[in-house]
Amino acid sequence: MTATVTAPSVGALLRGWRQRRRLSQLDLALDAGVSARHLSFLETGRSRPSREMLLRLAERLEVPLRERNELLLAAGFAPAYGRRALDSPDMAAVTRALDLVLTAYEPYPALVVDRSWELVTANSSVALFLDGVAPHLLEPPANVLRLSLHPEGLAPRIANLPQWRAHVLHRLGREAHLTGDPGLAALHRELSALPGGTDRSTPDGIAVPLRVRAGGEVLSFLSTVTTFGTAVDLTAAELSVEAFLPADERTAEVLRAARSPVANPRLPGG
Length: 270
Description:
Blueprint: H1 10-20, H2 25-32, H3 36-44, H4 51-60, H5 65-74, H6 92-105, E1 110-113, E2 119-122, H7 127-130, H8 144-149, H9 161-179, H10 182-192, E3 210-214, E4 217-227, H11 234-237, E5 240-246, H12 249-257
Antiparallel strand pairs: 1-2, 1-5, 3-4, 4-5
Helix pairs in contact: 1-3, 2-3, 9-10
């Protein structure tokens, strides 16, 4: 016997996103400028949403672009957001912007990842984090979170591994919940099973640092994230640049002294 998988209705998808955002029907209706009764009818299937209504509700619910397309398809509409390959001519401005940002961060490590945390490209300073990493973790598509927490990756060199691991898992778990992405949820389960200790202490200071052993010293970094805030292409919308800036003057001195003239090579996964 073959099991039949029924795709969720557009109403069920809307209800799921509303509940994920912890909004009542009244809260969402007021924010979107519709009646709570009409929203209830949309969720139960008694009314069919227009394309414009779906996009308005998706915007208020902060539904990722990929999942907005799924809502439209479930309602019988064509997707609103396209996906272009990063190396296509239409994406030339995006790749130039990424190269500019990566180069500007030198001599500090910076890398580009997609929504799944797979490495797209990086600047030359990221080589600092790759010393001693097992080759299989760098095979495309290389996942940077797996690379950082895996015992054959960067993890043995992270001086504050339990603290950093807790930060990474919390961030990944939140992204999995907010996006509803089953791939991120599976990655969270995988990384949670890796060794590394648990840090239940209350964070202090300004931000959780990444403290990496290198050359007989411990270098300390704070991470920042940059995204394309107005992107309407799925590829561009799901890219982010994560940079690791020195958290103390000694780290800055070491990185400036080790600066390489080579600019942002494509690493495995690029």
